[in-house]
Amino acid sequence: MFSNLKNKEVWFITGSQHLYGTETLEEVAEHSKTIANSFNENDKIPVKVIFKPILTTPDGIYDLCVEANRAENCIGLIAWMHTFSPAKMWIGGLNILNKPLAHLDTQYNRDIPWSEIDMDFMNTNQSAHGDREFGFICTRMKRARKVIVGFWQDEDVIERLAVWCGAALAWNDLQGAKFARFGDNMREVAVTEGDKVEAQIKFGYSVNGYALGDLAKYVDGVSDSEIEMLVAEYEETYLVAEELAEGGAKRASLKEAAKLELGMKKFLEAGNFKGFTSNFENLYGLSQLPGLACQRLMAAGYGFGGEGDWKTAVLVRAMKVMAYGLQGGTSFMEDYTYHLEDGNMKVLGSHMLEVCPSIANQKPSLEIHPLSIGGKDDPVRLVFNVGAGRGLNATMIDMGSRFRLVVNELEVVAPEFDLPKLPVARALWVPQPDLKVGAQAWILAGGAHHSGFSQAVTKEHLEDFSEIAGIEYVVIDHETKISDLKKELRWNDLYYHLAK
Q1: Of 359, 385, 362, 371, which Cα lies nearest the Cα of 455?
Q2: Which of 93, 168, 280, 419 has the lowest tally of Cβ within 10 angstroms?
Q3: Residues 15, 82 contacting (CB under 8 angstroms)
């Protein structure tokens, strides 16, 4: 699912002009090449960084942007003005550029050479005002971009650049992506609905529905040998409950779960899909709700949304791409129930079955238990806890006039007690700044009951993604105050109304 990401690249472009002469331009090129190569060799940056020749004319800039637009593996540009680059030269190129842009405000030397600095040095090292000239034209043209300031070898600069690369990767991954809906949305639910046409216009992906009978044909076509091979993989990977083991009373259910996974995977591969939804109200032709299948397909990189929630399926896929190369997992999630003890308030997150094992803190247990909804056979699922640490929840909602991405930072905590009668995967967290403010802010912002949960992705990833996509971004963190959030939401309503 992620093999093609290895070939993706960002182009490092540097602005200058012929005013300074050949010798200066040669020095600018060498400096730029050194910086680009340093980024390219840094393991924190998840894509290739490609040095491009110095840009000194309007035609050169325009042609470079045309080339970037056409290059399949180019996911964005990093722009730096080593000297002063008159910004009117950039208008034509910026007008047509359809790839994400990061503006790096740095300089080759970290320190001013106090005892040796002369006008030759000043002519060559003009980033301090060259980047302001470039910044002006981007702002004047309302060009979305990320601005990163600092010395190019500093860790915080590299980390912020790596985050932007992750967001640009996710944006690139959605262009032309396909998502399948098995059945429709859960009936009468509001937040899982949305304008799929507008989403395709805005984000570049498509969402279409498929009958369960279409999926059932793939499931029914799975061979016994394929099932046996996958069951053997289960036994090597998980702690298998006794009743699902060889000779166990529910062994047939495990084989049926494997059959569902194989059939779903074949359907998704045949259609080149990057994510999917399921719905316990639409299970025609299936023997059980595909819990284990959804969990393992998510772990393989597919986006998923329960109850027909296609927006969350897309978001989970995007967040998995953002997390490429990072530690920590990403999953479909739902705020399920509260612990409202004064001074110790928490949220227990889970779902009926479909939580990705990439967030498990131990070897998952493969179990089978009844499910009181859906009207099918008892489903097989992976059961586990999620480890303590930093995390976040994100939700994409359709506001009618625009899409809004709401993000809440979390402190994920270990359960204080065992949960012997809760046979599902689960996470326990404290929303920032606390449960009362965090939940109130989420509800006021219209956040859905489904989310993308991650211990790898940061709010900066999602802010950069929102900037690239041109959508509203609302963050709930340790600084959130309800009175300020209410004002922000009202101002946003006015801004997007006027902007439209």
Answers
A1: 359
A2: 419
A3: yes
The answer to whether the beta carbons of residues 472 and 402 sit under 8 Å apart is yes
Nearest-angstrom CA–CA distance, 335 and 358: 18
More reliable by pLDDT, 6 or 200: 200
pLDDT at 467 > cutoff 90: yes
Cβ–Cβ under 8 Å, residues 472 and 403 = yes
Question: Region 151-168: what's the mean pLDDT?
Answer: 98
Written in H, E and C, the secondary structure of the chain is CCHHHHHCEEEEEEECCHHHCHHHHHHHHHHHHHHHHHHHCCCCCCCEEEECCCECCHHHHHHHHHHHHHCCCEEEEEEEECCCCCHHHHHHHHHHCCCCEEEEECCCCCCCCCCCCCHHHHHHCCHHHHHHHHHHHHHHCCCCCEEEECCCCCHHHHHHHHHHHHHHHHHHHHCCCEEEEECCCCCCCCCCCCCHHHHHHHHCCEEEEECHHHHHHHHHCCCHHHHHHHHHHHHHHCEECHHHCCCCCCHHHHHHHHHHHHHHHHHHHHCCCCEEECCCCCCCCCCCCCHHHHHHHHHCCCEEEHHHCHHHHHHHHHHHHHCCCCCCCEEEEEEEEEECCCCCCEEEEECCCCCCHHHECCCCEEEECCCCCCCCCCCEEEECEECCEEEEEEEEEECCCCEEEEEEEEEEECCCCCCCCCCCCEEEEEECCCHHHHHHHHHHCCCCCEEEEECCCCHHHHHHHHHHHCCEEEEECCCCCHHHHHHHHHHHHHHHHHHC
Instruction: Say if residues 354 and 336 touch (Cβ distance below 8 Å).
Output: no
For 349-367, write each residue's pLDDT tens digit: 999 899 999 999 999 999 9
d(CA 281, CA 112): 67
**For a pLDDT cut of 70, what percent of the chain falls above it?**
100
pLDDT single digits (tens) 83-130: 999 999 999 999 999 999 999 999 999 999 999 999 989 888 999 999
Closest CA to 52 of 84, 82, 15: 15
Confidence of residue 185 (pLDDT cuts 50, 70, 90): confident
Instruction: Assess contact for 424 and 368: CB atoms under 8 A.
Output: no
Residue range 31-43: mean pLDDT, rounded: 98
Nearest Cα neighbor of 135 from 159, 104, 165 is: 104
**Residues in CB range of 178: below 8 A, 6 or more apart:** 205, 206, 207, 208, 271, 272, 273, 274
Kindly report the CA angle at 75 between 71 and 80, in degrees rounded to 5? Answer: 100
Taking the C-alpha atoms of residue 140 and residue 136, their distance in angstroms, rounded to an integer, is: 6
- Look up residue 434 and give its amino acid: D
Give tens-digit pLDDT for 253-279: 999 999 999 999 999 999 999 999 998
